[in-house]
Amino acid sequence: AKGNGKNNFQFYNSGWNEIILRKMKIENEIRKAIDQNQFTLVYQPKVELKSGKIVGMEALIRWEHPELGFISPVEFIPIAEEIGLIVPLGEWVLKTACKQNKAWQEVGLPLLCVAVNVSVRQLQHSDFVKTVSKVLRETGLSAKYLELEITESVMQNIEESTVVLNELRSIGIWTALDDFGKGYSSLHILKELPIDTIKIDKSFVDDVANPKSESMIKSIIDIALNFNLNVIAEGIEHEYQSKVLMENKCSFGQGYHYSKPLNAVEFEMLLRKQSDI
Ligand code: C2E
Ligand code: CA
Ligand code: CA
Ligand code: CA
After folding, report:
1. How far is the CA of 199 from the centre of ligand 2 (A)?
2. Mean pLDDT of the region 54-78
3. Of all atoms in ligand 1, which is nearest to the CA of residue 116?
4. pLDDT band at residue 2, thresholds of 50, 70 and 90?
5. Could you tell me the pTM of the whole model?
6. What ipTM, to 2 d.p.?
7. pLDDT tens digits along 190-214
C-alpha cells in the first residue's frame, strides 16, 4: 500500500516532473550543442515597406536537437541566460552572423547591416565590448554593418548599460531597442539610453486595425522621430498593416508578409534575385 501511495504521488506530480526534467535536459544539452554544431542561424529580411526591398537582416538562432527535435529559442534562450551559457552561445551567434555577412559582402552582394539579438546578461558581462571588437576584427566585418538588438531588461542596470552602449557607439556599431512599447519603461529608456533605432513590438502591429492601437502606433512613431531615432515595425503579416504603418510615417518593417526567417542559402538566393546578381 505504501508503494502504491508513492506511485500515486508521482502520478499526481508528473506534469511538474516532466517540466523540470525537460529543463534539466536542455541545460545539459546546451553545453554539448555548441561543440556539436547543433545550432544554426536563420536570417529574416528587414525591408523598406513601400518597395519591399531588403535593407538589412536579423539573425535568429535555431536548434535542432538529435533526439528532442526542434527547440524554440523562446524555450532555450531563457535557460541559457539562467545558467550563464548565453555568454558563449551569444558569442557563437555574433561570430557566425558577422562571418556570414562578410562572406555575402565579399561575393559582391549589397552591403547590408546584420542585426544580432543580445541578452542583458551578455551586455553586462565585463568582456562584452572586447568580445564584439574581437569578432569584428577576426571576421573582417566593418562595425557599421553590425547592429545589436537589446530589450528594456537592460534598464535593470542603467548606468552600466549606458557606458556599454556608448562604447559600442564609439566603435560604430548600431543599436536597436527590441519589443518597443511592450514593457513599462519604454519612454524612460528613450530618455536615458543612447540607441539608434526602435523596433515597434508585434503586439501593436497585430492590433493595428483597432483605432486605439493605430493612435498608439502613431504616437510611438512621432516620439521616435522627434528623438531622431529610426523606426522599424516587427511582425507584419498583412498588407493592411504595412499600409497603416506607412501612413503613420514608419518606413521599414519585418514580418511574414515579406519573408519568414530563411537559412543562409535561401537568404542569399533572395538577395541575388533582388539585386540582379
Ligand atoms: P525577437 O527578437 O522579438 O524576434 C522576433 C521573433 O518573431 C522571431 O521568433 C521571428 O521568427 C518571429 N517573427 C518574425 N516575423 C513574424 C511574423 O510576421 N509573425 C510571427 N508570428 N512571428 C514573426 P524566433 O526566431 O522564434 O525568436 C524568438 C525570440 O527568441 C526572439 O524574439 C529573441 O528574443 C530570442 N532570440 C532568437 N534568436 C536569438 C539569439 O541569437 N540571441 C538571443 N539572445 N535571443 C534570441
Ligand atoms: Ca530581435
Ligand atoms: Ca522583437
Ligand atoms: Ca522578444
Report:
1. 8
2. 97
3. 41
4. very low
5. 0.94
6. 0.98
7. 888 999 999 999 999 999 989 998 9
Ligand nearest to the CA of 176: 2
Three state DSSP letters for the chain: CHHHHHHHHHHHCHHHHHHHHHHHHHHHHHHHHHHCCCEEEEEEEEEECCCCCEEEEEEEEEEEECCCEEECHHHHHHHHHHCCCHHHHHHHHHHHHHHHHHHHHHCCCCCCEEEEECCHHHHCCCCHHHHHHHHHHHHCCCHHHEEEEECHHHHHHHHHHHHHHHHHHHHCCEEEEEEECCCCCHHHHHHHCCCCEEEECHHHHHCCCCHHHHHHHHHHHHHHHHCCCEEEECCCCCHHHHHHHHHCCCCEECCCCCCCCECHHHHHHHHHHHHCC
Q: How high is the mean pLDDT of the chain?
A: 92
Tell me the pLDDT band of 13, cut-offs 50, 70 and 90. low
User: What pLDDT does 7 receive?
Assistant: 52
Can you say whether residue 201 is alpha, beta or left, with left for phi > 0 and alpha for psi between -120 and 50 degrees?
beta
Evaluate: CB of 77 within 6 angstroms of ligand 1: yes
d(CA 89, CA 83): 11
Question: What is the rounded average pLDDT of the residues 165-182?
Answer: 95
Ligand 3 centre from 1 Cα, in Å?
Answer: 53
Q: Is residue 177 within 8 Å of residue 144, measured between CB atoms?
A: no
Task: List CB-based neighbours of ion ligand 2 within 5 Å.
Answer: 117, 149, 178
